[in-house]
Structures
1.
Amino acid sequence: MEISLENNMYLELVKNAQSVNDLEQVRVKLLGKKGEISNLLRSLGRMEAKERQIKSPQYNNLKQSLEEAIKEKKEILLNKEIEGRMDAEWLDISQDPREMNSGLIHPVSRVTEEIISIFSDLGFSVAEGPQIESDWYNFDSLNIPPDHPARQEFDTFYIDPGDESIRENVSPNVLRTHTSPVQVRFMEKHGAPCKIIAPGRVYRSDYDLTHTPMFHQIEGLAIGEDISMSNLKWVLVEFCKAFFELDSIDLRFRASHFPFTEPSAEVDIRCSWVENSLVVGKGDDWMEILGSGMVHPNVLEAAKVDSKKFQGFAFGMGIDRLAMLKYGMPDLRSFFDNDIRWLKHYGFAAEKSSNLYDKLSG
Ligand code: DAH
């Protein structure tokens, strides 16, 4: 066999190896103990001295150049393999690990869940109503007739009924200004007794540090044959203790007026300002957190519930406001700005349950 170093099939084998593994097989095939080159070298011993003189340097050169070629090729293949792995296993180590979270829970959703879980524990179920509401449910049924001054206080968004002729004959729908109409809708459908909460979006034409045109309320309603103001007080104290995670809490019931309750009370919670942030539970200040009272007989009758047989309490509170109080968020407007930095700062990890859930389920 004539072997030329520039153009031999052995070098071709090395060149064509596709992986480090391939190359190792070629090496064993050529230079291994029983490899072809090793066999050639062994055959030198069986040659005539003259022939050996010619072939020996040829074979040894071949062996050497193959060893070099294999070494070179191995380095190329190793680099290629590392590059391949780097591409496949790419990781941006400059990225904050928190950015890898798949998503966070908005504080409003989180607080709504917290409130629902507390009231569920107290035996309340969840009811819902439409956000576009007739003005009968939003006002009349709640003892707020058309000429009642309370209608003005609500900064209502009216839905344009469209055509002029329709506009004259039909009273317009509104974006509900509160969750209270759910009381009437629920009782109308399911009657009494009942114990419900109704969380959801409400709308008013208002915009400043603590008001946004859309915000969230939660309504509470408990109707039975002998439900009283003291039941209302107990439920609200228990709720506030669980929500603010405090063993005892000071609430102040202040006489007030709502058309849909009689008597009515606004409820304040004891708090104090410490370095510009509000601490709930201690101090000498009071913060209003909700409106409440005994459901007005006119509201029960509007919902076709016998007001001589049944009575009960209702309350309404702002979910966003409770979130601001509990988690120290100063500006309500930023809740709805969709600023990813705010959401990352105040959002809750989806996989972590709150202490509250642990406490309630424990
Ligand atoms: N609907 C009232 C509001 O939006 C809040 C409210 C007050 C609801 C007293 C009630 C209640 O159920 O009894 O301002």
2.
Amino acid sequence: MTEKDFELPEYTFDKEEGSVAYKSPSNIALIKYWGKKKNQVPANPSISFTLDACATTTKITYKKLKGAATDFQFELLFEGTPKPDFKPKIKTFLKRSEAYLPFLKAYHFKIETSNSFPHSSGIASSASGMSAIALCLMAVEKDLYPQMNEDYLVKKASFLARLGSGSACRSIEGDLVQWGRHAGVTGSSDLFGIKYPYKVHKVFRNYHDTILLVDKGEKQVSSTVGHDLMHGHPFAEKRFAQAHENLDRLRPVLEQGNLKEFIKIVESEALTLHGMMMTSHPYFILMKPNTLEIINRIWEFRSAAKSNLCFTLDAGANVHVLYPENEKEVVHQFIKNELVVFCQNQQYICDRIGFGAKRLY
Ligand code: DP6
């Protein structure tokens, strides 16, 4: 599919007003998206577990304007209160989406959104937030063009979510989603995420992710700045090639449930992401001393208890602890006994693999 496929012919219906709500989850990348080209095209393919508990709920109420406006008409409420500092990101998203959603300037939108996780947790809400908005707008478009089929709706929602935030395109469906063209994965695209199309061993079907909140502060490096650091980065090309290689390596690992190899790929990806940040210009260290304490304890515990837990990181200090269902009791105990002391205010979030966004009404 190309961008053109996401432009529909004339709408066949008209609608004065309505409302729609979606709950959309966050996701955690196993192979990381870090670096992008123009128009939100990723520099390399990535794959993620869709999460379940960490989610954004968004309601959009829309009302037709008397005449088409020259600019987007919307108000934004976050947890019931107007949030002007969130508006520029939404406006950028609407601008990028306008060519594909020609109704955007014909309506006033009231966007009410809330997160299941604490706002100040340091967990990025752009993936869940942008995917929820994209889905709501697709529901509006479906009202204007009822012959649209479900497959198209899902693909276009992912396509639009990507225009808001790259990783958001991996939050529409579950449980494993790949985004970015890769020769080895049939149907993969730079424009939207797809459900991972190959066999996945049952051990991964109910994987756990406990998110240890090491640093709940504002992100030190925004993702836009972060991705930009890969332009002219001395190791960029090698890194992009490595992501492709890791996707190939991951395929038999996912199929066979080979946890030892899974751990090697996932942890190496996390450290490479941070390695890229440490070796860019300007350079950043986003891990905190407690991030390293946690990583070392995970390694010690894994070896001593012959466990299969491992970690991954996003562009910050928090640690995602990944482990299979059959280890959940021992790992919970270990987290409580040894890792919680390294979390800010002892806070952590128990999440697990999820199956994608849901329409609420
Ligand atoms: C480190 O999706 O937040 O989490 O496209 O600029 O919104 P934008 O970036 P964003 O980047 C996420 C980067 C990451 C890795 C990943 O999720 O793959």
